[in-house]
Amino acid sequence: MNVLSLAWKGLRQRRLATALTAFSTALGVGLVVAVGAVRSGARTAFDDAARGYDVVLSGPKTTALSATMNALFHVDKPVDTMPVEAWLDARKDPRVLHAVPIAVGDVYRGFRVVGTRADLFDAIPDADGRPLRERVAPGGRLFADDGGFEAVVGAYAAARTGLAVGASFTVTHGLEDGGHAHDEQWKVVGVLEPTGTPNDRAVFITLSSFFHVKGHDRPKAPGAPDDHDHDHDHDEGGMHEGGAAPDDERARLLGDEVWALSTVVVRLKSPAFRFQFAGDWNRRRDCSAAVPSQEIRRLFEIVQGVDGLLRAVGATVLLVAVLSVLASLWNAVQGRRREIALLRALGARRAHVFAVVVLEAVLVCALGGVAGVAFGHVGVAAAAPWLLAEVGIRIATGFLPAAVYGGIAGGLLLLGLVAGALPAWRAYRVPVARHLHPVD
Predict the structure, then answer these.
(1) Are residues 119 and 16 both part of a single domain?
(2) How many domains does the chain contain in total?
(3) Residues in the chain with pLDDT < 70?
(4) Across all residues in the chain, what is the average pLDDT?
């Protein structure tokens, strides 16, 4: 029998020990694969989500990361608002291709309601680079800016809430569930196809209709008579202060009722203008500017320590697995001294015996590696729906680059050689004459 056959036979004789040591190896490999796959997929998904968002303008007290998470991923809460005049100025900047106003402050069954204009669907693409305007499902359409109480619903939000073209709904006050429902109703005129971006989780309504809702209207100046009974203020990142007298251009574009904005999404004629544009706008006192690509890079730098910790845990599990393989083979050699002596008596050389034991260790690591790669990808596939539901990020569940698997294979080969070396040396030194009789 050749070396491989002898090694495989030895592993089959110790099925339980082989399975346990291979499983411990699989856990370590699976964790390493899952961390790498999630990080790589998440970075790609975040970059796809940021496509088209060159700069995000927000209130002067809102942090850059908060503005990015709010405008791109429809999470977090803007601290304050920015005046409409800032949006009007952004539209006139010769570097700007699109400047889209956004107002938030309500949810529908846990999904963010975004008040905006129809040009958002021209400015922002899906994960494949197609404008959202082209992703309206058959039978629907986009709302017009003067379309009244109309809405376009993202694919995931529509699937989870049951909203379809023609359906009507009311929204809940505040950016979290648990608030009171507004009386106004919106009609769904379009549903987006899956875009692979967080916009799948949003409900888009006309900006003018957002400000027609009771509680979203302009606050009265101190001492001014009340024309309406305001039962509540718009809190949790909604409209709560500011606003200037409307001029003709603002009234023509937005109507008189729009008095402040949560954010403005800016798409530039060239991405090369990003930092110059953001720097110019950060010198203003009425707003602040964030570059989403930069904030995403910083976000991943923040979580890099967590990645390192998980990789360290995976490496520790692999180390324990190697020690388990070593202990298993060490004990196996102790019980196989007569078998080894018989092999030597039949003509097997010491190097032959050494190679059999080392190969057993390598095979255990290889079996664990194959199972670990499978575990890792299954784990990523299981986590992908949760990430889509919670963050709106679609993680690719395909294979990693071949170099990653090559690195895993090389590492496991090295671990197998190390784990098998000491037991193999013990087998190498088994005295033949002493163990040809049955061993107790």
Answers:
(1) no
(2) 2
(3) 1, 3, 6, 10, 175-180, 217-247, 250-251, 255, 307, 332-350, 352, 389-393, 424, 426-440
(4) 81
101 and 248 assigned to the same domain: yes
Integer Cα distance of 106 and 284 in angstroms: 28
Residues forming beta bridges with residue 148, ordered by sequence position: none
| Among the listed residues 246, 241, 290, the one whose alpha carbon sits nearest the alpha carbon of residue 50 | 290
Show the domain range for 181: 55-290
Count CA within 13 A, CB hemisphere, residue 140: 27
Same domain as 73, residue 187: yes
Assigned domain for 346 exists: yes
Residue-wise burial string across 60-83, b where 16 or more C-beta atoms lie within 10 A, e elsewhere: eebebbbbbbbbbbbebbbebbbb
Tell me if 161 sits within 8 A of 109, measured CB to CB.
yes
In tens, the pLDDT along 116-128 reads 999 999 999 988 8
- Alpha-carbon distance of 288 to 277, in angstroms, equals 11
Task: Mark whether 25 and 139 lie in a shared domain.
Answer: no
Residue 440 placed within a domain: no
Give the list of residues 6+ apart from residue 263 with CB closer than 8 angstroms, or none.
56, 57, 58, 62, 67, 70, 71, 78, 82, 102, 104
pTM assigned to the model: 0.72
